[in-house]
Specification:
Pfam family, one (chains A, B): LacI
Order of helices and strands of chain A: HHHHEHEHEHHEEHEHEHEHEHEHEE
Keywords (chains A, B): DNA-binding, Transcription, Transcription regulation
Largest interface: A-B, 53 and 53 residues
Distance between the termini of chain A: 65 Å
Oligomer: homodimer
GO molecular function, one term (chains A, B): DNA binding
Helix content of chain A: 40-55%
InterPro entries (chains A, B): HTH_LacI, Lambda_DNA-bd_dom_sf, Peripla_BP/Lac1_sug-bd_dom, Peripla_BP_I
Largest sheet of chain A: 6 strands, parallel
CATH superfamily of the largest domain in chain A: Response regulator
Shape of chain A: elongated
Number of helices of chain A: 14
Protein name (chains A, B): LacI family DNA-binding transcriptional regulator
Strand order of the largest sheet of chain A: 2-1-3-4-5-11
CATH class of the largest domain in chain A: Alpha Beta
CATH topology of the largest domain in chain A: Rossmann fold
Number of strands of chain A: 12
DNA sequence: AAATATTACGAAAACGGTTTCGTGTTGATA
DNA sequence: TATCAACACGAAACCGTTTTCGTAATATTT
């Protein structure tokens, strides 16, 4: 086992000072040709690499960014992480991933852990519990310390920071409009409680489209589940009772499960009933029939978030100006609707 | 913006030395009641938290572990990360995730970045390119430096370190056996090239089960794709030509896609043809029909890997003893086979 | 009262780098 | 030959902690 070599080791071996070694390795003008060559050769031979921690301490820059998300076993978050990772890596940053598991406490603990010097900035999406409690003090504390934060997808307007969202309202509006244009008459929505910012926006888009149509809104066609957890019984009862001819779901799983239910009843998709979901995940693509979805472009979102964060980290300026980037969703047409 | 407070700041304000502050905060016996109370009160008031980087430099312990995996948009890896994250977090460690994207070079670069002090140990699964080239020098260098490494799932025996795998051979064996017991006569295998250690093991299990049966092996019933990428045309041609009555696939996607193909031809699942896949992901559960799979227990694997790594990190002993943990897969029976 | 023990604190080194500033040596200039 | 600039390098501070060791000032013992 050969331990890592340090500047001090090189200095001792070559009988020069640590400063000389440091400068020689940076090709400083101050150091003579001879010495530089000697030092660099020695360093290469023993595979010298500067210690990141020491550099971090000196520069007060870690080149790490903290990503705090509710869940990782979820296609959307997964694609966002990939976007963040790719972009951050290209700019020399590493990504520390922490999971809040939808818990407020875990979110707080994770942020506190990372905020003590481990990272240069945060990218995060709020846990449902945080959104429910509407307690954002942990975020405010971090921003007050001057640590940049970018919120994505599940955001709040109570914290001043950069934000990246997709236009969920527009996505739902377009999807609902699609149903209306196809002559659907009983357009249902399966969503969750409004404290989840995304569900709230999607519900708004659904309402807007129907309000603009001659049909108007039938509240009984809206099913609000308490969380993103699949509640099979509730969906089954709802579909049986309401018998819609089109269903918009706030995620893939609600949609795919609903499709199975109506298929078992002998309905044909999309002739008798059509479906549109949110999130362009692996499920939608391989479902039978394949599911039309509002794609959220998670990878793009991750990239944009990472770019905003790193730009802020590396900007000298003390500008206190924050932006909110709104990404446009796209409807990915598949076999669960007529086309 | 109130910046973080340091020991030095507290010392200056309270007109004591830095050492005294440090000791007072640790409740050292050396410091008087009075002073301790004063210091602790002040620290609490200004929300003092020690700087992680400084502590890391001092202790030569970062409390970070590096996870290098080929891909994150992949249910199995995602569950492993979750297992790692949960366990590591409970023991006070953070997880730095790096993606190799199946590229040898990226794997090397990521490891080098992290190996310079950023982490206390690695958990990784090899990229396909690495397995193809069979070049493991980057791993050997790291272990030679005394940095502990745990390999999981996609491993190599050429590197001395701890390993965690599931018994892929056993999983495939059991699945194939199941088909045989159900009286299937043309049992096909859709797999990938043998350089992927998991595919190789699964193919071995398939062969073993058939060799033990009166049927024996029919090489033309084995389709070897070049990678895990879904090659629709190849699978279609294969299924049309061979017309099997049971198919074992090395992943979910091959299986789900194959099921669609045969359904379109009018075959009934599982009566005419049965399917078993690998990886208990979201696809299997919601596919139509739902897919029987060999579950790999990714989360468990992550947990076990993290435990092995952290135990090694924290063990004083310089033992050079490595273990390989073999997890047992389980067959999750769903509607793609008779039951 | 002298010797010793205890208390309560500070100085300084260490972790591994970067960077500013000072200085001895050399060669060129006046 | 005295003066000065250029060259090449080293000393030391600094980043924020922890920890060892030394030491005044008290308290206790003989």
């Amino acid at each position: 086992m050969k331990a890592k070599i340090t500047l001090k080791d090189i200095a001792r071996e070559l009988e020069v000072s640590i400063s000389t070694v440091s400068k020689a390795l940076k090709n400083s003008e101050e150091i003579s040709r001879d010495t530089k060559e000697k030092v660099q050769a020695f360093a290469k031979l023993y595979n010298y690499k500067p210690n990141n921690i020491a550099i971090s301490l000196k520069n007060k820059r870690t080149k790490n960014i903290g990503v705090v998300i509710p869940d990782i076993v979820h296609h959307f978050f997964t694609t966002v992480i990939r976007g963040i990772e790719k972009y951050a890596n290209a700019r020399g940053y590493n990504v520390i991933v922490c999971l809040s598991e939808e818990s407020f406490d875990k979110e707080v603990i994770n942020m506190e852990m990372l905020a003590n010097g481990s990272i240069d900035g945060f990218i995060m999406s709020l846990s449902s519990e945080t959104q429910e409690k509407a307690d954002y003090n942990h975020l405010k504390e971090v921003t007050e310390q001057g640590i940049p934060v970018v919120l994505f997808d599940r955001i709040t307007h109570e914290v001043e920071c950069d934000k990246v969202i997709i236009d969920d309202e527009l996505g739902a509006y377009q999807a609902t409009k699609k149903f209306i244009d196809q002559g659907k008459k009983k357009i249902a929505l399966i969503t969750t409680d409004d404290y989840l910012s995304v569900s709230e926006a999607r519900t708004r888009g659904y309402r807007k489209a129907l309000e603009e149509s001659p049909m108007g809104i039938d509240e009984s066609l809206i099913l609000k589940l308490p969380s993103m957890e699949l509640d099979e019984a509730a969906i089954k009862a709802f579909l049986n009772k309401m018998d819609p001819d089109a269903v918009l779901c706030v995620n893939e799983i609600f949609a795919v499960y609903s499709m199975r239910l109506v298929q078992e009843k002998g309905l044909r998709i999309p002739e008798d009933i059509s479906f549109i979901g949110f999130t362009d995940g692996v499920l939608s693509k391989y479902a039978n029939p394949s599911l039309t979805v509002v794609a959220q472009h998670g990878e793009k979102m991750g990239e944009v978030s990472a770019k905003m964060l790193i730009d802020k980290i590396e900007s000298e300026a003390e500008e206190e100006t924050y932006q909110t980037k709104i990404l446009e969703p796209t409807l990915v047409i598949r076999d669960s609707i007529a086309h």
